[in-house]
Amino acid sequence: MQQDILINWSPQETRVAVVESGAVQELHIERTLERGLVGNVYLGKVARVLPGMQSAFIDIGLERAAFLHVADLLGGFTGARPTEPDAAARSAQPQVPIEKQVFEGQSMLVQVIKDPIGTKGARLSAQISIAGRLLVFLPQDDHIGVSQKIPSDQRQELRARLLALAGDAASGGGGGGGFILRTNGEDASDAELAEDIAYLRKAWARIKAAALRLPAKSLLHQDLNLLQRVLRDLSGEDTQSIRIDSREQFAALLVFAREFTPAAAEKLQHYKGERPIFDLFSIDDEVAKALGRRVELKSGGYLIVDQTEALTTVDVNTGGYVGARNFDDTIFKTNLEAAQAIARQLRLRNLGGIIVVDFIDMVREEHQDAVLAEFRKQLARDRVKTMAGGFSHLGLVEMTRKRTRESLAHLLCESCPVCEGKGTVKTARSVAYDILREILREARQFAPREYRIVASPKVIELFLDEESTHLAGLSDFIGKPIALQAESAMGPEQYDIVLL
Predict the structure, then answer these.
(1) Residue pLDDT, tens place only, 237-279
(2) What is the 3-state secondary structure (H, E, C) of 60-102?
(3) pLDDT band at 94 (very low <50, low <70, confident <90, very high)
């Protein structure tokens, strides 16, 4: 499917939208002050070793110490390292305890594999990998691999080509190391692969030199910025154009593209239109919708998307859709449309972790199979790894989507200071009754001259009107006057009881 990439650049923020058939499929945002850390290589210092968790906290100069598990240590196994970076294969091998490999105060070369999220620090690995345009370089390994997304009948030939090229470069003084061929390197020429190998080995040489020169907790290598990653990762054969609205960044990106992504350089355009570039496809409107709970479907149905700390739930509803011949067909067609919309929303919102989808219950098994097949087909278009199970006995579909960066909502929003992220607040009457109980509790411990209630205007108004009888009864019961004071700056649930 043909796609266009639009780039809106400003000194404080870069926004990238991937558009297919006039609809936004992906949105990437990078803020200058909040740039992600994944891929960065640091010279870290071991702050603490935790044998019970087989982990260590590494100080890499961030606000919070980063986390390193024994499975992500180089040489953490008693046997040979697995040929593929597979967690299951690694966990099956006996491990050398972490306390026998690292010690407090030790300097270590580490790489960020997951950004800090919420209260959690960054996740680290001592197994360094450097991504290029066509290859991923494994400087501490000698493994030659090919992306699993490339057809199996082509992998052996590609592996042999890559092995020969890597060996030639090493024999010419280029150094060792292993490589994994990325999906977009499937049709690359030997010259292009050799160029990427040389670039990656030079990058590793710079990292090693910096590690000897710089003190601990220093940044040695930074992954490409969002503009450069657009050319390396997002642009492909289906990309018709890459338009950017900054003349200065267009010139810099063109230089980078001509050196590393010549095919993308031909598609790069400087947008000179008077309208903001994101207005071309109403992208800002799409962003606003992507931050809401409700997603309207063209048929009249809708989705409800709820994102929590533990998981994300998606509920499908028919709404006002009654266009099919019978109710079963109505449900089936709504679920089919929802399968496409949900996959798009996951990409657009960058939702990760555990996701539970509640499709509308379908009686016919062939309808369930068709919806599930469509859902998996749409998920297969995702650049991020996804896994979806079948319908459970409760009619739910459970899936996972790899999470390496903050979701769109976490990036652009913060918890409401009024409800503190709950999404609801107590009613004024509930707060009023809380206050009455609190005064009764205080009266049993203290004997002030007077009590004064300071609360939001809505609560005070309730005490002056509908709850005046209860307030007067409490005053008589404790034998003390109760004064009222409205404070407009207070939230619905906030109040103070002042003892005078």
Answers:
(1) 889 999 999 999 999 999 988 877 788 899 999 999 989 999 9
(2) CCCCCCEEEEHHHCCCCECCCCCCCCCHHHHHHCCECCHHHCC
(3) low
d(CA 166, CA 159): 10
**323 and 335 share one domain:** yes
**Domain containing 359 — which CATH number?**
3.40.630
Per the structure, the count of domains in the chain is 4
> What residues pair up with 312 in beta bridges, in sequence order?
307, 355
Indicate if 242 and 268 belong to the same structural domain: yes
Closest CA to 245 of 224, 271, 206, 219: 271
Residues 81 and 197 in one domain: yes
The single-letter code of the amino acid at 138 is: L
Comparing CA positions, the residue from 302, 293, 397 lying closest to residue 355 is 397
Does residue 188 share a domain with residue 65?
yes
**Hey, what are 330's tokens?**
């109505």
Tokens of 375: 């859902």
Residues 95 and 76 sit within 8 Å (Cβ to Cβ): yes
In a domain, 417, yes or no: no
Q: Is 308 helix (H, G, I), strand (E, B) or coil?
A: coil
